[in-house]
Each structure stands twice: as structure tokens, then as C-alpha cells.
DNA sequence: CTGAAAGCGCTTACAG
DNA sequence: CTGAAAGCGCTTACAG
């Protein structure tokens, strides 16, 4: 690969001038620009990104940090990533998928991250990834609340998980449901913690006793129970425990499909015998399911877009007023999976 | 951030020795190692990845190159990426999502890619991304066949698209279907080209006349028709053209859901009135749909894993015998969406 | 508008 | 096993 010296020599100018032509940081006369570009073309020259990064101290990449060993892209992440990639590309940024192995988190990783900032997906209660980013002084934005004791200035982009649970429960309670079963996210995630609190609050406000069968947590990806989340709980609670349940709130679309399968196997049907509400899923798929699924529009793509913007702001690339904590609104999209009692 | 000189000074050794302790490229005495590690801890030192890359000429990142402007992560890519990330991390590699804007492809990008190799998703017939990678001498693997005239030594990982279409058609023809409608991928993609050829071949072998309504292509993402692909074609062909169709082959699960919606709106049902076959989708979701969808298991996660392995082989990191073109097997997973005529 | 020179923070022969 | 020095390929004050 040709380097800047080769181009400078061929064009009869200095390295600094070649640099200017490509970086556009200082004006260059048209004549010189042409000479440089022609020489570059001839030599098939492209500036070395790494060498540039070393001196500018910018990698022009942001990390999308996903937890190792307990993570799986689902339809929510799908939309989210589409938003992230699109918005990042507006600022000339690329996206580095960063799956930090748990062991490496313990013994700080072998080399600094080649990223200018990071977006942390699915934070857990005391998330080591966040401590590591904090330690390495890498600006970051978390998708969801964090509780790390020593991290004060974290920026977050989140849905209003409390309001979401209140909205869902109100919607169901208005339809006469009081026997609800909540299939929450994995219990380590802060989103699950927020939702649980909200769920309990709603139950209390409506004088509904919280019973053990009413709330469940998604098993770890490594667990053999992972793939049957939704099915197993539905069968267990309805058929074995014989508890009365009239409405099920499912964490995501996959879980909802799993629940529907269980309901069918029990000889029951949605929404006649049970109402089903999906918190996060692919709306166009949910809309086309039979029956179409009622769920929340979390605007996951917008979450991605705004997390990039907030990060760009922290990197000093985007001006304007940005709150430390940004909330993306959400609303109920009605399908045919919930009925009045 | 502390740098290598700081650590060397504090530990009372040379920079080269500090370097060795972290890179492990030469043995270091235990005593010196301890001194260096302690100094590093004290200074919170981590080697600078960029500076290292500049001299080693390795970025320890592979690019996942996705076409800009006409791309959307779907459930297939989901699984695929999960495979890629997992396998790449085995070799200490990170994954850079690279969405090359179309304009940038024209005027070769501003700086070289900070990647050691690339995996090209969804190649089109004369794919500019591939010419660019070739020009920049970056090793790459394509997911799907490519036809670039000047690129000879390309490695590909692919499903056997010809066999897949033959298998699907045989399956349907055995059930008595001769009036099939094929909702193919976007016509620019090589996968769509291979499938079309195979489809026509099968029809010819069974003395079925190819008619215009029998094959459709997914609209570009930028098209307003994109979101209704499947629905629109089904309604148009069945209701407006009033063509006889007994089986529909859908490119992916989203398209299949869309088709089911149309069928329902036409007052028909699956599989009684129409059989439905999905080429690529999330099997666990398809299994849980009502009716459960019959489809192909393309092993998309394996596609991801093997594309990384093949790339690692090209990078000289993985030994062994690797074919230039690797085929991942696929098989039919039966659900309840196809019936005999 | 352009050039000469220092420097970004590492690794790597070379020498001992 | 360790050190001194050159060099990776750029950018950036500084000077003109």
C-alpha cells in the first residue's frame, strides 16, 4: 500500500500538504490539490486510518457494548442497531460490536478500546462493563438505568419503565383483569428491576396481593430453560398450580409466541380465555400474528438514534441542550390479543 | 492516560520490557513482570491499541460489511451476527459494523478500513463493496455468490440456494401443488438470482409454464412498498388478477406473516386454502406461530461461525484445509402451514 | 497557501 | 532475559 511519502514525492509536495488535501483541515490551492489527487489515484493511495487515529486521538468508532455469555440479538436489538448504525454514519462514525468476555472484565482488558465512546446495552445492577469504561475514561451512554456506586456522571437513554408498566396494567385492569402474570426480563437487568417495582406498586394501589406465580424472570441464555421461557411458566402456573390467570404480560415477542403455544396446548385460546400483552417486539410482526398482538411501541430505533446523539454530544461533536437522562416515549398499539373480562 | 514510558520509568525498566510483559512475545523474568504489573496497576495503565496496531499492522477487528440504504437487520441477520460475534471473540477479534454509504464507494473512502478482513453480507451482482475491498487488498469472505469480473480469489460461505429451491418445490409438488407463487429476495442480490434460476429450472422440469405472477422480488428498503411485501402481492395476484395459487414460498418470516395477513383478509386460511413455506426465518418463532410455519433451517448462526473461520484462515490465523467455497447445509423443518392438495 | 520537523505510543530487530 | 534506538504513517504547531 502506498503511503503519504510516496504521494508527496510523486506530486512534488510535502507530506503536510498531502495530509491537508485529504483531511481538508487547511485550504489548499486548486493546482496543488489536483496534483496530489492525481498522484494518489496513480498510486492507489488511501490515508492510513490507524496512523491518523494515533495522532488525532480519535478512532471514529463507537462501541456497542453487549454483555457476553448472556446475550442474544432479538427483534428489539435489531431495530435498535438499525437506528444506531444509521445515526452514527451521519457523523462519520462506525460501530464496533464489543462483547466483553466476563473474565476479561475482571483483569482489565489487554488493550485500550479503540473507540471514542460507547453505548452499553442491557446494563445489569452492578455492571462491570460500566466500571471498566469509567476507569478507562471512555464517554458512554447506557440504555437503561445503572446503579454503579462510583459512577456519577452517567448518561442514559431509556424508556420510562415505570410508566410503561403502569400503562399496561391500567389497560388490563380497565378491561377487568386482576389476575395477571408478568413474564419479566432477566432479573439481573436494571430494566427488570424497574419493571418489577412498578408492577408491585400497581398491584398495591389496586389492592391486589402479590403472589409468587404472578412474576417470572427470563432465564439466562446459558440456561436450558431459556428457549422455553413463556411456555413453561404458562403451563406450570395454569395447569400444575391451577392458578387463576386472565392476562399475561410478556417481555418480548418471542416469549409471547411461546405463551400462545402453551395456551393452545392447554386447549385455551387468546383472547377468549387469556389476554396477552407484549412489552417489546417487532410491531409489524406482532401486527401480522394471529391474533394480532397488543403491545407497546418502545420506539427502539429512536432509542438507538438518540443514544448516538447523546454520545456525540458527550464527545463534543454535537452542540445543543442535552439532558443527562433522556426518556423515549412509548405507547400502546392495540391488536386483538386482549379482551374485556 | 498513562503511557508505556510512565510505566517503564516507575518500574525502572525499559519500554521494550513493559511491552513484552503485555504482549507476552518474549519471556520476562517473574521479578520484572511483577514490577511492571504493579507499576501498571498503580498508574492504571493499559496499552494503547491504536499505537500497537500501527506497528503490528493488525487491528484485531473484522468488518461486517452491510449495504447502505437498502439494508435492515432481520431475524436471519440476527442469528448470523450472533454466530459471527461469538466465533470472532474466540480469536480475540472484534466486529466492526461497516455500512458503506453508496457515495463513498464511488469516491474510494476517505481512509483505509481499520480492519484486518471483512465479511460481506448480501452481495449484489456487481457489488462495489467487493471491488473496493479487492482494491484495498483486504481479505474478505462473502455470504453468497459474487459475480465481480475482476475478483478471482473470493471466498464464499453460502447455502446451496439451488438445492434449497429444488427441495422446497419438490416438497410442495409432492403434495400436489403446481400453482406456486414465489416471493423472492431483492432482485439485486445474488441469492435472488440463484433462487430464480433454480425455480425456473424446477418449473421446466415439471412442465409448468412460468407466468409473471409466479415470481416477485422484495422492494428496496427505500421503497414505500417495502413494509407490505407479501401482503400486496398476495392480494394483487389472488384477488385482482384472480390467478390460481395453491402455495406461496416466502423469502423470510416477516414476509410470511404479511402473506398470512393478506390471506386472512381475503377470507381464506392457511393451510386449508393455501400452503405457505418460509425460506429463512427465526425457527423458534415460526414454530410458535399459528399455524406453525413450515420452513427451511438455513443454519444462519453456522453461516456466521464458518464465515469467521474461513476469514481467520485467510488471515493466516487458523490452520487446516479450507475450501474456497463453503456450503452450509439446510433442511426442511415441518410445521402445519403446508397441506396436500 | 506550503514546508520541515517533531511527535502520537507503541513494537521490533539488533546487540549484549 | 533486558535495553537503546529506529520506525510504523500519519498530523500539527511553527515558521515563512
Quick overview of this protein structure:
Chains A, B: Keywords: DNA-binding, Transcription, Transcription regulation. Chain A contains 13 helices and 12 strands. Chain A is an alpha/beta fold.
Structural overview:
Chains A, B: It holds the Pfam family Peripla_BP_3. Chains A, B: Keywords: DNA-binding, Transcription, Transcription regulation. Chains A, B: It comes from Paenibacillus sepulcri. The structure is a homodimer of 341-residue chains. The radius of gyration of chain A is 25 Å and the shape is elongated. In chain A, the strands form 2 sheets. The first copy, chain A, has a 6-stranded parallel β-sheet, sandwiched between helices. A 6-stranded mixed β-sheet of chain A has the order 7-6-8-9-10-12, with helices on both faces. The N and C termini of chain A lie far apart (71 Å). Chain A contains 13 helices and 12 strands. In chain A, helix 5 links the parallel strand 1 and strand 2. With 341 residues, chain A is of the alpha/beta class. The model of chain A is unreliable at 102-108 (pLDDT under 50). Chains A and B meet through helix 4, strand 1, helix 5, strand 2 and helix 11 of A and helix 4, strand 1, helix 5, strand 2 and helix 11 of B. Strand 2 (94-100) of chain A pairs antiparallel with strand 2 of chain B, so a sheet runs across the interface. The first copy, chain A, binds a DNA duplex (16 and 16 nucleotides) through helix 2 and helix 4.
